[in-house]
Amino acid sequence: MNLPLFIGLRYTRAKRKNQFISLISLISMAGIAIGVMTVIVVISVMNGFGKELKQRMLGSVAHATISSYNNDYIEGWQNAITLANETEGVVSVAPYVSSEAMLQGYKTTGALLQGISPDYEKSVTKFSEHMKYGSIDDLKAGEWNIILGMDLAATLGVGPGEKLLVYIPQFKTTAVGVLPRMKRFTVAGVFEMGAYEYDSKLALIHLADAQKIKKTNGGIEGIRIKTNDLMKAPRIAHQLSQKLGGFYRVRDWTQENASFYQATQQERIAMFIILSMIVAVAAFNILSTMVMLVTEKNSDIAILRTLGMSGGQVMSIFMVSGVVIGLIGTIIGTILGLIVSFNVSSIIAWLEEYFKTDFMSSDVYYISDITADVHRADVIAIVVVAFGLSLLATIYPAWRASRVQPAEALRYE
């Protein structure tokens, strides 16, 4: 075995006369392990929250959308749907027409009115899975039915079977002057997506009814697209954009929800940096351990230098000792972090049962289930950062050891 490696490994093992140094080494190792475990668990839980939030938010919107480049209605939309369905990664598509509108029930409020085709829509969004009353199939052409978000229905003071007036910001000239377009609808159902901005502002009608009330001449405003992988939507949208040509604009969900996407990404980065400070504190423990070890081994260093060992070899001895502490701590922390992350739901459930409490009450929190989503890239980054900090923490004490002068160290021996 290489001599510096052999001596460095010996220094990490306990002996009778340096039990204190060995105890500090174990504490440093435990600190690295706890720090790495904490970072992995917290980042994985954040990934789980982010994934759940994205799924809920994107349950009522598409992974990507096709619209007219000049914001006009798409008249030859059947051809665009055919091309979209032929694109690799596209699962389903759904045409729509949308408009801002004023809804009048017992009270009046603004809303986003969307005309959809139930047969298409069920394969793209999850409205049909979140219906509290009625069914999305109750939207039939010519019957002028409307489905409201739960909070929107409560604001208007209407329920299933009741009537309301819908005003569209398109004006027509009559004998009494210029009036906005108006149509009476029957409330056919109520949905609850779990996202306030949709439950309080969104109303659904049949696509054919929307085309009539907005006079689109059979055209549509856009096409919603569902992909086989949410995170691959930007790439799929780019491929579809090249296939459709310059007459269409294709936008993916990261562009439609840019502020939300950027906020979640920045939050993860900020949290990773903050939690890495825990590992940095543990690395300072390695630094103090190595300083004490170098001080305690001054006479040993002097003897080794007298026997002909170079300063670089002496430095390697203490580098090995510090790296072993950091490496073992990182490995243990990674294993524990992965075990906790993969079982965090069961652990939380057991703690709630043991303490007879609910940590994330559904009455208070938007997401009440704690889940973890472990990403390989995150784990690798955490391991690299932890090991890198451990390595940096050993450089200065090892360098100090290589500068020990034999005559000075042995003067009082």
How would you describe this structure to a colleague?
By secondary structure, the protein is an alpha+beta fold. 54% of the residues lie in helices and 19% in strands. The chain has two domains: 3-55 and 261-410, no CATH class; 64-255, no CATH class. The protein has a six-stranded mixed β-barrel with strand order 2-3-8-5-7-6. A hairpin with a 3-residue loop joins strand 2 and strand 3. Helix 2 runs antiparallel to helix 10, helix 10 (258-296) crosses helix 12 and helix 10 packs parallel to helix 14 (376-402).
Helix run count: 15
In the residues, how many domains can be counted? 2
Q: Specify the biggest β-sheet.
A: 6 strands, mixed, barrel
Q: List low-confidence stretches.
A: none
What is the first-to-last residue Cα distance? 30 Å
Q: Helical amount among residues, as a percent range?
A: 40-55%
Number of DSSP E strands: 10
Oligomeric state as shown: single chain
Order of helices and strands: HHEHEEHEEHEEHEHEHEHHHHHHH
User: Nearest-angstrom radius of gyration?
Assistant: 32 Å
Strands of the widest sheet, in order across it, are 2-3-8-5-7-6
Beta-strand percentage range: 15-25%
Structural class: alpha+beta
- Based on Cα principal axes, name the global outline: elongated
Mean pLDDT: 82
